[in-house]
Each structure stands twice: as structure tokens, then as C-alpha cells.
Amino acid sequence: METNSILETIQMISEEKLDIRTITMGISLIDCIDSDGKKARQKIYDKLTTKAKDLVKVANEIQSEYGIPIVNKRISVTPISIIAAASDDKDYVAYAKTMDQAAKELGVDLIGGFSALVQKGYQSGDETLIQSIPQALTETQRVCGSVNVGSTRSGINLDAVKQMGHVIKDLAKEDPVNCMSLVVFANAVEDNPFMAGAFHGVGEADCVINVGISGPGVVKRALEQVKGQPIDKVSETIKKTAFKVTRMGQFVGNVASKALNVPFGIVDLSLAPTPNEGDSVAEILEEIGLESVGAPGTTAALALLNDAVKKGGVMACEHVGGLSGAFIPVSEDAEMIRAVTKGNLNIEKLEAMTAVCSVGLDMIAIPGDTTAETISGMIADESAIGVINNKTTAVRIIPATGKKVGDTVEFGGLFGQAPVMPVNTNSPADFIHRGGHIPSPIHSFKN
Amino acid sequence: MKAILTVFGKDHTGIVAKVSNELSKLDINIIDISQTLMHGSFTMMMMVEVPDTSDFDTVKNDFESLGKDNALEIHIQRQEIFDATQKL
After folding, report:
1. Of A378, A411, A408, A410, which Cα lies nearest the Cα of A395?
2. Tens digit of pLDDT for each residue in A349-363?
3. Which A residues 316-375 touch B at CB under 8 Å?
4. What average pLDDT does the segment B10-36 reach?
5. Which CATH fold would you assign to the domain A210-435?
6. What is the distance between the terminal CA atoms of chain B, rounded to a whole angstrom?
7. pTM for the whole thing?
8. Cβ–Cβ of B85/A244 closer than 8 Å?
9. What is the pLDDT of residues B53-75, one digit of tens each?
10. Whether A224 contacts chain B with CB within 8 A
11. For the domain bounded by B2-86, which CATH number is listed?
12. How far is B78 from chain A (nearest CA, A)?
């Protein structure tokens, strides 16, 4: 019996808040396509409630027997814009409601895939789905949606970027909190277990299990032991710690996959923070030596963190996928919130940080009077960072309707609270209104 | 199944006796045992064999309430989780 290893593992779980952020079951809905929308939705409901019927039960059993908390149980499905396109439905709100109903019945926390992939252009289903987003995400509790507007291979669909600015504004009208269920992507990945951007890609198997971990506290605690030592030592320490953290993801994924008799897809190596004290990515950056996240040096420290986590995690897992990097959502990270409130971190610095980590401008509240064109401008900038750097980027911003800089938007639970941040008010309207397509970059032509 | 039972808390007489007694009542065999005082705190780890017929949740709840009654933190977890993070 190796008592030191046992003590270390128990400490990682109980004091440093290591947990499995999510077990996400990816389910293909391709075989549910039907020209009669009603029949299609019935097939979707039946497939979801059959394939995932034991998901919550198995996750709870793993949590109980192994003593590792599993925070969320989730489902991702094939983008609904593809599934619903064969029907002549005028809007796809009913599909979102079917997803919501199935998720509720199964007891899963979130279901993702009310999505469209329009990086190169719209098929008929994409147009209908995007128009349905505000109503669909307002009238459901557990459904998440995403739209991919750009890719390194295809460039950026500026028409979609323009439309998404309006969609986000419309979604925020009734309640800004609804916006946390919608992500605009460039280079979206098909096996992401994290919400709101999870969908089940068309190239995926019929049903898979993907796992996302959460362990910023473990990394922070390990770095406390190497104070003042050269940066190489910091990188080594993060690698070793990331190995242990992601190993837990691999283990839980294996156990879940076996118990559910569903193939194990990937472990997403991302370090996902929560608003709980000591579960913060920003605190890791500060432990590396920054007075506050946002200080000059933040981007470099984050780049090192992101790279070291991947190096440690890749060795620990059979298959790595999803977003796999450090997350920097403002509202879900207590130290990020503090830095923003104190004026130490602004949107421009956050944008720079997204060039070196996953995923993007995430869970950031902006003034309610920000125009749709400005939001589109922010989406275009993030997409450009992703497309040029061959990485995933995303925008999940929350126009805080009726609120201004200094106010706060409350999301509750895992999603925390976001202080409203100032946005550059110079208009990009003429650029956005040009519409059309930003061509793919020269380095995308690799064949 | 093999499980690891850990007991932490303020040292006092009879902890090992009470825990062992509870294990015996639940028909759980002790395979290995390690007990020490760490910074003045009682720390004990036991590797045990839980019969396949036992309901793990019941076993867990029994030890949680034993812990509560004696001001101790008692956890029981399947053993594989400890190998998972530490071994290739």
C-alpha cells in the first residue's frame, strides 16, 4: 500500500478540488432524419432517451465508488441544422424543445448541438436554425447552441459574422443570461465535451463518451512548491501535475465507457476553472509571478501553461481531443472576476490571451447598448485569430441589456458572475456591412 | 472489490477498534493497514476487501456516520483510482 500516493490523490480531490467537469455522451442523430419534422423529433427523443438512459446512473455510481466528483453529465448531438434540413419546418424551436425534454427526462445537466456549421456558406437548414436560436435558447433550460463561422481551410463567413451579432443581441433581449448557452466558433471541433460549444460531429461514431476535467487548483498548489525557481522548472511541474490530473480523466472515461458499453472517445485536456476559491486559472498565472492576471507577461505565462498542460496530458491519455487548453472564462474564475473588477484586466488583453490558449472571449459581459456590429467586430477578430493560427477560437459574450460598465450579471452555480466590461466604441459597421467572405489564409493550402 | 479506507482526525483512544469493529460487522476483510500521527493528527489507511455482494453506498454511508459520531473524516474509495493517477 503506497500511503504517500493515496494521501496525494485524496488531497488533490478534497483540498485542491480536482474533479471531472463533465462526462459527455456524443450521440449521432443522422439516423433520425425525416422529411416529416414531427417524426424526426420523435426519433430524436427516442434515440436520446435510449442511448443515454444509464448515463446519469453510471456517472453517479463512479462518483460514489471511486470518490471523484463528476460535476456535470451532458449530451452532445449532431448539429440540428443538418438533421432538420430535410423537413419543411419553418423554424427549429420544436427540435430544441425535444432536446430539452429528453435532457430533463434523463437528468443530464446540458445538451449541446443546436448548431450550424456555416464557415463556407449556408445550406437551407443553417438559415432556419440560426433564425431560431433566440427563441429556442430562451424557451429551453438545458439546450446549448453554437455556430461555426470560420475555419483555417475555408476562411471567415462575414455574412454569418454579421448575422450572429444580431442573434446575440436578440438572445440577450429577454434575459442576458440566455447568452451563456450560445457560442460562435472558428475552427470548431467535433468531439468537444464542454458546453456551450459541444456538438457531435458528422465524422464521429454513432455514440461515444468524451470526458472533460477540471484541476486548476492542483496545478496552483504544485507551483507553490517551486517559488522563485527558473521558468523551466515551472513548465516541468505543470507537465507532471497535468499528467496526474488528465490520468484521472482517462481512468473515469474508461470506467464509464465500459459500464455504458459505449466506445471511449477522447479526454479534453482543458483546465476548466469554477468560481470556487482555489479553482482558478488566473491564480495559476499569478503563482507563476504576475501581480495580477492582465499584467504584461500574462500572455507568455498563459502560453507556457497551455503548452505544458498539453505535453503532460497527451502522455496520460489514449486519445486527446476537444478543445484541450486552458480556459479563461471571466465569470467562471474568481480571480479573473477580481482582476476585471479592479481594472487590471480588459477585453483587449483577454483577446491577446486567446491567441495562445483555448478558447476565446468567454463569458464576458459587455454593456447592453453595445451595437450588433460591434459584437460582430469582436467575433470577426476572434475568428481571425483562430483562422490564422490554426486553432479553435470562440466568442461567448453577454450583452447585459439595461446594464453598464461596473454592473454585474449573475449566472449562478458553475457559471458564476460577470462584471460588465468596457468595449471600444469606435464603429466597425462599414466593415461588417460589406458582408461576403474573408478568404482562407495562404498557409491553409497544404495539399 | 479492493478498496482504500482512510481515516483522518484528532487522535483519541479506540479509533482503530471502532473502525475494525465496523469492518467486521460488514464482513469486510483487512488486507493491509498503516497508521501514524501526522502533525498531531490521526491518519490511518487500510486496504480492504469489500464482498461483491455488499452495497457500496451502504458501506460508504455506514462509515460516514461512524466518522461523524467520532469526529473523524472517514472515506472509502475503490482502490483503482489511486493507481490511475500515479502509475503508467
Report:
1. A378
2. 999 999 998 789 999
3. none
4. 95
5. Anaerobic Ribonucleotide-triphosphate Reductase Large Chain (3.20.70)
6. 21
7. 0.94
8. yes
9. 999 999 999 999 999 999 999 99
10. no
11. 3.30.70.260
12. 5
